[in-house]
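Here is a typical protein record:
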Amino acid sequence: MKKILFICLVSFLIPLAFALDSIEEDGVTLSLVKDGNDYWTVSSTQELFNFTVENGNNGYNISEINITVPDQFTFSNDTLSSNWSSWDCEYIEPKVTCNSSEDLLDVGEVIEIWFSASADLENEINVTWFVDLLNISNELEVSITTGIDGKPPQINEINMTYMGSDLEDSGNISGREPIGLDISVSDGGIGTDKAWVHVVNSTDDTVQEISLNGDGIFSGEVNTESLDDGDYTIKVFSNDSFGNLNDSEEVGFIVNPLPDFEVSSFSWSPTNPSSGDNLTVFSNVAAVNSIDQNVSLVWKLDGTLICEELVDSAKEVNCTFTGFSGSGNVSVEVDSDDNLTESSENNNYHSRIFSTDLNVTILNVLYDSESYNSSDLAFPKYNETLILNVSVNYWNDQEVVTDLDLDDFEIYDKWVSGSGNYEIKENELSNVDSSMSTSGVYLITYRTLGISGKTLEYGNHRLKIKLNDSGHLGESDEWDYFLDGPSLVITFPEMESSVDLNGASSKDVTFDINVTNQGNYTISNVQLVLIDANKGATIPESKIEDCKDEIGTLGPGKSLICEGLKVEVRESGTRVTVLFNGTYESNLLEYEEDSHSISVSDSGDSDDGNDGQEGGQEADDEQWEDESPSSGGGFSVTPKSLKSEDYLKITTYPEKVELEQGKRITKIVEVKNVHDIEFQNVKLKITGINSSWVTILPSGDVELEPLKPKEYRVVFDIPSDGEIKDYEAEFEASSSFKTKKQSFTLTVLPGPELQSTIDQTIEDCQKQIAQLEKEIEEKKSKGYDTTEAENKLQKLKEEFNKMLSYRDGGNYKSAYDLMDETENLIEETTNILSGAVALSTSGSLTGLLTGIEMRWLLPGLFGLLLLVGGYTWWGRHFKLKEKLLGKLNLKKPKFRGTGREKELDMLASKIKKKDTKPVKTKKKIKIDDSVIGNTEISERTKELDLIKNLVKGK
């Protein structure tokens, strides 16, 4: 009986199956395992074909197996063998015949026959292998189909696009935008595996390796940002899953030098305009390399657009600012809408401050032949001379002003301790020494204030100089000095501020008067001149006369007290007015105190007909608490009933102070007495900031009259190494009654030196990011998994762009705050990239699972199969994995391994020949990180030795 079974078998190509699916007929199973792909054989490549026959039919006793080699293959007798030594094998064209007359293939037994053959057809075609199985009673013919793939993929079309338009072969680009690639590839055989491109320069050096994504149409981008000027070629590569490579197609493009616009510094006319003049500002625009488009150019004044035009080449530009007055920031910017890619984006902008004002600076002050700077106050007495050393320059070009005289200067003086405003002091400016005017320096003689209105303005004063020279105005910064002299302070210790008439028509209030010299010079002949009360209140004359008779001399810090005075109070709002006189260097001084008022209430409960005085005294006494003596030797009192009131308020203060390292700024803080009692020891301080960074003027205790404000000058002076951060601080105004606080923030900004460092760091980061992008592309084109690195790089770019945006907007602090995070992300991206895993690495499980070209892995395939738990190359039915686990039970002597060791030795001999045989390739083909050659063959030898040792049970 003869049975013929014809089957054309196309196997599923999956990474873990390297044998063709078996064919079973009447219980006889035929399997074919190749050292190549499951199905396809590459043209002109010799492969080992291993046929396995398993007899599962007890009616068959097979004595001969004939395998017909198809016409498209050439048989090689070098490796013809069988794992049954009792069977003889020979090749008689076109068949391989193996037989034995004695040792038949009985039911349940398996035999293997292998030999080498190479495909002769350089095409893509299916071929059929016929296998005849014979014994005495019957013949069984089984066929199995493989394919020859000798044809690489076809590259049908290459399309390049640039900035939304098609880019022809050898086309020119001027910018550095990406070139898009769409490449059409097809394959009629095993199918296209992947496509990639190399970008090479004019000397054939590869500058970019780019993986393309897709199926049929493969897409990617050429990054032109890092390319120098010159000619480039895009070489296209595509291979099928069997490794047939097509590298025959290429296109070119030309990178032109990037254009660049640059604006230069300004010139202007007139050089120093007067207020209201027209100011014309000029600049030169330079254009490097060819420009093929118009770009915008705008002039602005303090951010407001004044002039605009389009430019396409080098030219001089100008803008006229009509009726220019005061100070303003004039700027010019080319390519203001950022439509042009340039070789440098940092030279398109220029600006400077222009002003019709003069630059007036008080350099120092001379007093009593000593020089004082802004932080070291002079302490003159009244009517003494200060000489102000003043520098005057024109603002715009710093040209010195040489023709000023006394009539051009005005001086203003402000008594800070008296909380007054600036007052012009025309008569006190007595002389201007212009002997150094050729250097713009003038010595201005200023006589300090006299005793005006019988009052000496003791304490802190503030000066400033104003100039008006033919329409050029100028004003100096403020300059402080301290006027020495005596200063009487009058208080009413323990005097009631409120009384209850309790139904009576009036009530007597007993009080004392305390007079203290809080200045630093002695006052003579101190005496009470007048005590008066309003609202119908009366004061007994006898006591007043007693106080008037008390004449005394008060040195600094000394006090006099008039005791036991009485005032009969009838109406609410009664105010007691006191006037004291004294003499100082034969000058009469008058000090009037009218700040103590008394509120009156009437509960209607009379107390023993004694005007309510005694009955109310105990309650009144409970309304007061004695305090310790004030700094002047007088006394201050605190009414218990007013403990919950504010007393003080900080009415003016900066909520935020921003200052660069190494810079100084002055802010005004106003503290107000919101009650109708006087405070003698009000002091302002700042907490939360290094005390050496702050100077407060006045620095000591000051007197604060009822319902009056006090202005403090707070100088913030940040050292050049001050830490960049936001400092949460407080202004704290305090007296013996109350402490009032207001929070504010001091922001220390990067100074010029640190700004320069930030600029350099940003430039370095930009270079590192570009290098990381390049390395990721290189790794990606070599088959590495760069997904995690790309994700981290995207986050890095987002942080860097924020930092760049802050810097470009002048916000160096925010840019500085982001630097640590940006640098951390650079390090993290670098570490991730250095640990990237290759998607297709020879001899690795990862390579198998991602579809590496199979031809480069053979015959190292055997070791790989062990790693992934697959079957060995000599057939699935030996179950090497189970043998490794000690589960394989070999029943017959013929399976002791003699045949297997023999075939391994044969294969080792074949591999060793390849190890010593020169690799004849026109050029090395880089697959992932390996260059295929003797190195990889040696790795296969190691894998084969591993298999042999495992088979021997090692």
